[in-house]
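Revision sheet: structure tokens.
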Amino acid sequence: AKEAENKDKKDEEISQESKDALETLKQSLTKKNEEKREKISNFGREAKLIKQLIDLALLSNNMLKGESLDKFVKRSIDLIES
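Predicted:
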């Protein structure tokens, strides 16, 4: 909304208060985006662990074979390395 207000104005027509408010909003938005990215990354890691648990159960019952077994081994290596 602040950007829309200032869209048709020249730089010198925009008050310093408005510029500061816009900068604060941009910083806040950047921080929120970083937090969102971190939460999504954490969820992705948790999903890997859940998939790993399911595959472990399948492996213990000799039900994990072929491509699924290959993916399980690769995921296991990734989890150990990280």
